[in-house]
């Protein structure tokens, strides 16, 4: 079992000879900002035609349910904002802004004071979020409780580490690289810490609770995905992957090695081939599971008597990165809220 009591850190043992378990080793808490880990830009295989693009969120969608992937990526069907996802966005914004404060000012009380202004900023950017709460006194009470939950998550972060001892090298870092196969990998990393030794720690905040032991590999897939991209950009395997669960105050740590990252590359390339076959054949099979009751597209799903919308007319073929996940024309795509 790898999860522990609130405020302590869990170590993930190596699977099949992969990364070593970690305890007190790894990047020190007092890390220093160094040259940007994104200095290599979107480095990848020179001269390789880009055949598609994949992020951790969309890869997870396909693994969860190929039809969900289709609805989100091919059909681009709208989804209702959820209170949980919006709270995740809010807490992430607060923790990013926290490191704009001077070291000595990075206290729990200062962070909690950021919740209100960051919510107003988020609401100004996405006015539709106001519909998450009802009207009148009941809606006001619901919103107040929601904000209080966000504040508690921010406070819980301080039980896990002291931000006054940290100076992240990067925050909300967009990374991308192209594999030899032509598959572009891209995503957002919450935080990158670099120790004076050059060791890199990838940190991701989660506003949910830590997974059970049998679901840890799935949780770590996102982190190994990021580690693979940074490894290809830098030529150095990140020393530590750290997931911080603010829903229950647990931390999951994993030290990857080259074998882990090569296996991750094989996995994402196999996923892409499965996606390509689904595109070529127009077959996006639903995979019913425990998350179906929370899916915005349940009414369209054949498993529940629904009918998906018609696929685009003509062969889909191998779409460009813009066709798949946005960001065409060279711009950086928006972060997917389900990564939070």
TrEMBL record:
<dbReference type="GO" id="GO:0004386">
    <property type="term" value="F:helicase activity"/>
</dbReference>
<feature type="domain" description="PD-(D/E)XK endonuclease-like">
    <location>
        <begin position="53"/>
        <end position="302"/>
    </location>
</feature>
<feature type="region of interest" description="Disordered">
    <location>
        <begin position="1"/>
        <end position="32"/>
    </location>
</feature>
<keyword id="KW-0547">Nucleotide-binding</keyword>
<keyword id="KW-0227">DNA damage</keyword>
<feature type="region of interest" description="Disordered">
    <location>
        <begin position="303"/>
        <end position="340"/>
    </location>
</feature>
<keyword id="KW-0067">ATP-binding</keyword>
<keyword id="KW-0234">DNA repair</keyword>
<dbReference type="InterPro" id="IPR038726">
    <property type="entry name" value="PDDEXK_AddAB-type"/>
</dbReference>
<protein>
    <submittedName>
        <fullName>PD-(D/E)XK nuclease family protein</fullName>
    </submittedName>
</protein>
<keyword id="KW-0347">Helicase</keyword>
<dbReference type="Pfam" id="PF12705">
    <property type="entry name" value="PDDEXK_1"/>
</dbReference>
<dbReference type="GO" id="GO:0006281">
    <property type="term" value="P:DNA repair"/>
</dbReference>
<dbReference type="InterPro" id="IPR011604">
    <property type="entry name" value="PDDEXK-like_dom_sf"/>
</dbReference>
<keyword id="KW-0378">Hydrolase</keyword>
<feature type="compositionally biased region" description="Low complexity">
    <location>
        <begin position="22"/>
        <end position="32"/>
    </location>
</feature>
<dbReference type="InterPro" id="IPR011335">
    <property type="entry name" value="Restrct_endonuc-II-like"/>
</dbReference>
């Amino acid at each position: 079992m790898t999860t522990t009591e609130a405020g302590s850190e869990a170590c993930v043992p190596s699977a099949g000879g992969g990364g070593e378990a970690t305890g007190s080793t790894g990047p020190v808490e007092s890390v220093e900002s160094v040259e940007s880990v994104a200095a290599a830009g979107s480095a990848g295989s020179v001269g390789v035609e880009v055949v598609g693009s994949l992020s951790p969120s969309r890869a997870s969608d396909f693994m969860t349910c190929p039809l969900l992937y289709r609805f989100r990526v091919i059909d681009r069907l709208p989804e209702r904002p959820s209170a949980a996802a919006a709270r995740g966005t809010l807490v992430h914004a607060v923790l990013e802004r926290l490191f704009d404060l001077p070291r000595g000012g990075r206290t729990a009380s200062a962070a909690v004071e950021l919740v209100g202004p960051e919510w107003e900023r988020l609401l100004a950017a996405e006015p539709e979020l106001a519909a998450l709460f009802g009207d009148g006194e009941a809606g006001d009470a619901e919103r107040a409780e929601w904000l209080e939950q966000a504040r508690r998550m921010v406070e819980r972060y301080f039980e896990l580490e002291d931000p006054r001892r940290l100076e992240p090298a990067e925050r909300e870092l967009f990374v991308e690289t192209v594999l030899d196969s032509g598959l572009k990998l891209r995503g957002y990393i919450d935080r990158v810490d670099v120790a004076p030794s050059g060791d890199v720690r990838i940190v991701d905040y989660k506003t949910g609770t830590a997974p059970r032991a049998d679901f840890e590999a799935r949780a770590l897939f996102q982190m190994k995905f990021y580690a693979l991209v940074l490894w290809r950009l830098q030529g150095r395997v990140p020393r530590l992957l750290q997931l911080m669960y603010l829903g229950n105050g647990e931390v999951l740590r994993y030290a990857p090695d080259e074998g882990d990252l090569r296996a991750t590359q094989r996995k994402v390339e196999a996923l892409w081939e499965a996606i390509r076959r689904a595109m070529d054949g127009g077959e996006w099979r639903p995979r019913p599971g425990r998350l179906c009751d929370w899916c915005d597209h349940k009414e369209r799903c054949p498993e529940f008597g629904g009918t998906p919308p018609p696929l685009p007319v003509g062969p889909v073929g191998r779409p460009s990165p813009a066709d798949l996940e946005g960001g065409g024309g060279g711009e950086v795509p928006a972060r997917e809220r389900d990564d939070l």
